[in-house]
Amino acid sequence: MKKQPTLRERALRLLARREHSRVELGRKLTAHVRPEDDLDSLLEDLSRRKLLSDERYAESRAHALSRKYGAARIAHELRAKGLDKGLAEQTAKAARATEVERAREIWRRKFRVAPRTREERARQMRFLQSRGFSFDAIRAVVVGPGED
What we know:
Helix content is 65%, strand content 0%. The chain is mostly helical. α4 (54-65) packs parallel to α6 (85-96), α5 (71-80) packs antiparallel against α6 and α7 (99-110) packs across α9 (135-141).
């Protein structure tokens, strides 16, 4: 019979694959907690040893999300993963600096040509808005008929 991995081994295996937030890792490990395990002390120990870091997770996740989404969506996704609002907003703030360029690149990949009608323009703007880009970034990217 195969020996079940300890809670620490499971945590280290998950952290070896990618960064996790404290809340996310705790959620994944909860199903494997045995009576003799202390999940909170394990998470605290991993944080103290710098193996688990919400800040590192936020930066890593924001970088991955920034290829497809705007700052508002990045902040929302980080909060959904259990990060506190302040850290999520601070991390998303860095993404705001390049928001227009990223929105332009995403728009170019999706649409390639400027809208010819107001309906097309509205559709393109809704697409970028659904990706979490600010209105200012969207207006800078989507130029409609009669505008320059």
